[in-house]
Input
Amino acid sequence: MSQPHSTATLAFERRAELPNTPALTAYLLKLMALKKTNLCLSADVTTTKELLEIAEQVGDYICIFKTHIDIITDFSTETVVGLRRLAAQKGFVIFEDRKLGDIGSTVQKQYAEGQFGIAKWAEITNAHIFPGPPIVTALSEAAKKAELSLYEGSGVSTYLQQLGPPPAHGLLLLAQMSSAGCLMTPAYTQSCVEVAREHRDFVIGFITMESLNTDSGDNFLSMSPGVKFVEPGADAGDGLGQQYNSPESKIVDKGIDVVIVGRGILNASDRVASAKHYCQAAWNAYEKRVNGN
Output
């Protein structure tokens, strides 16, 4: 970034105290600072058993656990209860990567009702704005009526003991994507930013390739997929359009706050070791950016 926004060099815990910061944004910033992780795990697995296993394995090293719940072949109450339990025990927030994009009445039902009832167990979801700005209003209204289930069993993490349960709910807007040939133009991205500024109480940030904080009052979280360590000389893609970048290039060069890693951890022979590696690399990059090294 040629001229970084003020949030780029401000520590997470200080950003949490900025005026007009949404409750869930402030919570996540404080959680990342306490836990020393700005890593999100993208858990693209297809069974409840593996979903809960991966959450158990890497939960200590992530701030956000991202799901695609509609690919779980045996989704049930057990899935949701297990996720909420592990989120409380490990200290992470759940993000259902639903990519909502329809008229208001439809997305309200997709978000709060139906088979998955996303708003009942996930603090975060995301949406496209191509249906128009009312999609955000519709989801915000649904969120206010939805009751997020809280796990009240034993073994709550020290992070939750200090911070309390996460505030519900928050929305990410899909402003940019990491796939080759993406049709999200600069004008579309700017429209996402403008819509977000109109809904600062509910929109916590963006799925994006770079920080989109530009105005003095911006304190949006930037989360980026397409993060993976690539061996020198190896193809920096997956053959299906995904383009990969290192945690440092995303965090230091592009101002990203949270890196989203999937296959780099899921396909590793030692998932715990890989999660630790990504966690440390991402946190080191964040400290490098904040300290201006």
About this structure: Confidence is low (pLDDT under 50) at residues 232-239. The domain at 6-291 is CATH 3.20.20.70 (TIM Barrel). Strands lie at 39-43, 64-67, 93-100, 124-127, 170-174, 203-207, 221-224, 258-261. Residues 271-291 form the longest helix (21 residues).
